[in-house]
Amino acid sequence: MVRVCVRRNSDSQHSRAIYEAIKGICYQKQCPNEERILRFVLREFDWKPADILKQLHFAVEDGLFRESIAISHKGSKKGNEQMSYRIINTDNAVELDANGNSQAEELRPDEDSGHDWYCFDCQESGEVILCEFCPRVFHRKCAKAHYISQEEHWKCPSCKVGEENNSMSSLPKEKVAKMLEFTIKRLREKFSELTKHVSIEHCPDYDLYINHSTDLSCIETDVVEEKFASPGQFLEELKYILHNAIIYFGDDDEFTVMAEELIEDAKQEIEEMLLCPDCYYLSNSKPKDWFCQPCNPPHELVWAQMKSQPPWPAK
């Protein structure tokens, strides 16, 4: 049966800004009420106050923050009760009360299906369809799923990539894995910053937003273990790095820009791989006389020449 639900109401960038606001206000030993949260967020972002408050309330509904009553201990409001907001704890984060003190009680947002919180295509919240074969979720419009039978087990666009027929469909899994090893090695060399998990020490709220954390080292392990039946499946897993970066760091962050470059490089590698799997394999493995070995199907031999250079054989 198709499962459709709202995994998150709040926008990740708004709720992350609010998270930093609450944390900063608490460390100043002040009560993180709506007024202070607004002032803090508006220092950094040109957002409408009404939108910030709307996202704050959405984040409370999502279980990212908790409302609590705090007693003012100083100023003209000393002794008065006021609404404040707490940061929800994860395994590695500390929940702070309105006075900046850690709480012994451990709080976590609801855990259910293990699916992603945000659409895999646009990284936005809202009503999504849950894939029955992977943790991804998609908005109906993003998945171009205008009609879905309630009887079917819905398979997302990313999972369907592995079903496409191409020049590598008939290759044994071990050969596909070997070619992907060449690809991941080049990507690791160029994007070394993406080979490690995001540090929870520096990003304690990371697990509140990222459901499927991965990096190039994890994906390389999957390649070696032959978990990808096609280059398309490999690319969809790489896209998780970009997906997570957009959700947590935002569109303009240098980490996100690097992840975008990673995906573009991977697409070029895969395009070359699909153009001729034999050429890709031989040019990377370089066995003896590899250039003379015919591909299947064989290429026409030609002469290539650059300006001011002698011609050389090519195929």
From TrEMBL:
Residues 116-162 form the PHD-type domain. This is Zinc finger MYND domain-containing 11. It comes from Paramuricea clavata (Red gorgonian). The keyword Zinc applies. It is found in: Nucleus. Keywords: Bromodomain, Chromatin regulator, Isopeptide bond, Metal-binding, Nucleus, Phosphoprotein, Repressor, Ubl conjugation, Zinc, Zinc-finger. Residues 183-256 form the Bromo domain. Signal peptide: none annotated. One of its GO terms (biological process) is regulation of transcription elongation by RNA polymerase II. Transmembrane segments: none annotated. SUPFAM superfamilies: Bromodomain, FYVE/PHD zinc finger, Tudor/PWWP/MBT. GO terms for cellular component: nucleus. InterPro entries: Bromodomain, Bromodomain-like_sf, SAMD1-like_WH, Zinc_finger_PHD-type_CS, ZMY11, Znf_FYVE_PHD, Znf_PHD, Znf_PHD-finger. The keyword Phosphoprotein applies. It comes from the Eukaryota. Its main location: nucleus. Residues 6-82 form the SAMD1-like winged helix (WH) domain. The lineage of its organism: Eukaryota, Metazoa, Cnidaria, Anthozoa, Octocorallia. GO terms for molecular function: DNA binding; transcription corepressor activity; zinc ion binding. Gene3D superfamilies: 2.30.30.140, Bromodomain-like, Zinc/RING finger domain, C3HC4 (zinc finger). Coiled coil: none annotated. Pfam families: Bromodomain, SAMD1_WH.
